[in-house]
Amino acid sequence: MLDDSNIQASVSLGQDGKQFGHLTAPNSTQFSAYGTELIPIVVVRNGEGPGILLTGGVHGDEFEGPVALLKLARDLDPKSLNGLVIIIPSLNLPATLASSRLSPVDGRNLNRVFPGNRQGSFSEVLADFVVRGLLPHVDYVADIHSGGTSLDYVPLTMMHRIGDAKRIAKSLGCMKAFGAPYGLLTTEQEGGGMLEWHAELQGKVVISSELGGAGRLTRQSVEIAETGVRNMLVFAGILNGEITPPETMGRTQTRLISTPDLECFVLSPGDGLFESFVDLEETVKAGQPLGQLHDIRRPEKPALVVPAPRAGLIIMQRPLPMTRMGDCMFLIADEWNE
Ligand SMILES: [Zn+2]
Fold it and tell me: pLDDT tens, 257-311?
């Protein structure tokens, strides 16, 4: 697929039908000097038409993407398509196998090393392959994330308000078609290293997601991921059929929200054992105590109360009580009126 990458693909993007193959990425180790990681890739194509890249497992402790994409890869019939679907259920395969956010190969966070480097570390080489080898062949990208071990999110899809009005409208259309309970217009803290960012730079229509988290996989989060990616294929004009609205599965329509500034990210003002006073989906006022930090070593010390820096809706909460100063504990969002 790319002559100057160390990663070899056993599938062709120009071939009609369904191909199950691998991206073969070198991983030379103590006990496997010429060893490789075989990352599954599935290509389903039927003639000329729009293209989409679906990725899961960019972080290895987020499981909705891998499950939904494995099921989609098995189920998709090329005859029901018009165009190209590239499915990578777990892009960061060694991390997924280890249930780890970071790569156990090079210790890197795959979604912070884009656009990668063809001569870099394992994660950088992988990112470079995606940017130069896959993104140019598609029009749409859906990168399915969840909160992972240290974040618990309301189930949401997200997008950046980027590009021309037509592209923004398409991203918004994708979010609504996906049908997750929430759709977030996001301000990233460190967008430059992300897959989404570099797909957007190439002019793609991009959505990402946070479909739950806390390292779990729930029946509802899998259902949202599964129907969501199918609906997005229909919205993109790739899969024949109708969009399945969330109401038919007993869920509400997507509620649009935004995180307009960095004050939305509530950072811990100290170390300690955190006792939360609020729950996900709760609306809070500015200054309202969100919880308190207890210093385990000093029983005589009063707990440190953490106030809400702004008003809004709690859309993410840290599920791990042990907290370090600077950890992100909550994400507070606004309603988003189009
Ligand atoms: Zn993630």
Answer: 999 888 999 999 999 999 999 999 999 999 999 999 999 999 999 999 999 999 9
27 CA from centroid of ligand 1 (Å): 23
Contact partners, residue 286, CB within 8 Å, separation at least 6: 308, 309, 310, 311
The Å distance, Cα 123 to ligand 1 centre, comes to 14
129: its two tokens: 């392959």
Condensed to tens digits (0 to 9), the pLDDT of residues 238-271 reads 999 999 999 999 999 999 999 988 899 999 999 9
Question: How many beta carbons lie within 10 A of that of residue 101, not counting itself?
Answer: 20
Distance 146 CA to ligand 1 centre (A): 5
Q: CB within 5 A of ion ligand 1: which residues?
A: 59, 62, 145
Could you read off the pLDDT of 57-70 as tens digits, one per residue? 999 999 999 999 99
Asked if 267 and 290 touch (Cβ cutoff 8 Å), the reply is no
Burial of 49: CB neighbours in 10 Å, binned 0-12, 13-18, 19+: middle
Q: Cα of 144 to ligand 1 centre, how many Å?
A: 8
Contact assessment for residue 114 and residue 129, using Cβ atoms and an 8 Å cutoff:
no
Domains of the chain: 8-258 (3.40.630.10), 266-333 (2.40.50.100)
pLDDT band at 161 (very low <50, low <70, confident <90, very high): confident
**CA of 301 relative to ligand 1 center, distance in Å:** 36
Q: What is the whole-number distance in angstroms between the Cα of residue 102 and the centre of ligand 1? A: 10
Distance 16 CA to ligand 1 centre (A): 31
Please tell me the distance between residue 212's alpha carbon and the centre of ligand 1 in angstroms.
Answer: 11
The SS3 call for residue 242 is coil
